[in-house]
Specification:
With 207 residues, the protein is of the alpha+beta class. The chain has three helices and ten strands; from the N terminus they run αββββββββαββα. α1 runs antiparallel to α3. The longest helix is centred in the C-terminal third of the chain and has 18 residues.
Length: 207
């Protein structure tokens, strides 16, 4: 490989690597590092999931409410139209704690606009509800390609959320465990090719 081509390939690798955004501490091996927690939840080491895992269970109050954990995956400038976000994780539902009514837990991306905190829409990789299998690890994985609307977001967050919209005194509200979360942004192949061409052009101009 000649020097110019090698330099161009190296430049593409460096730039592409810097464009990747990855979830931090997705398995909670470092406790709550990188995460923001909300609502009713707790971080424990259960026997049915490896290492630490997060359990979320609503707030035991009437009306719709949310609990779980969130993490900013990327801000504008760190993603573009055509990029792919691969994300997912594991959820576990104990047979004794099945979500009540339409309560459910989701692994999702949230897209935010404005200053980065105006909610736009969500993309769900997986949901656990009253009809889901119990006492087994349920794994979810999704590739989501950013269209123009998604790419115009100010911020993208990864969320593991228990949505409690049903509650009755004396009745188990339900709870769901989450662990081994992952999310990464992969630049569109076309963008990487353009970077390579730009690198070659710079090399030619220097000659």
């Amino acid at each position: 490989m000649n020097t110019r081509l090698f330099a161009a390939v190296a430049a593409v690798a460096v730039v592409a690597g810097s464009a990747n955004a990855d979830l931090v501490n997705g398995g909670f091996d470092e406790g709550g590092t990188g995460w923001e927690f909300f609502g009713g939840q707790g971080l424990f080491d259960p026997p049915f999931l490896p290492g630490n895992a997060l359990v979320t269970y609503g707030t035991f109050a009437p009306g719709t409410n949310f609990s779980g954990a969130t993490q900013t995956l990327a801000w504008a400038g760190e993603f573009a139209e055509g990029d792919t976000i691969n994300f997912g994780g594991d959820m576990y539902l104990e047979s004794s704690r099945v979500p009540y009514g339409t309560n459910r837990a989701v692994i999702q991306l949230n897209f935010w606009y404005g200053a980065g905190y105006d909610y736009g829409f969500s993309v769900v990789a997986g949901e656990v509800n009253a009809n889901s299998a119990t006492d087994q690890i349920l794994s979810f994985d999704l590739d989501y390609v950013l269209d123009a609307g998604a790419a115009s977001a100010t911020r993208i967050s990864f969320d593991f959320t228990y949505i409690q919209d049903g509650f009755e005194d004396g009745v188990e509200s339900g709870a769901v465990w989450g662990d081994n979360f992952h999310a990464s942004i992969v630049p569109a192949p076309g963008a990487m090719a353009l970077l390579g061409m730009a690198g070659l052009a710079r090399g030619r101009r220097r000659d």
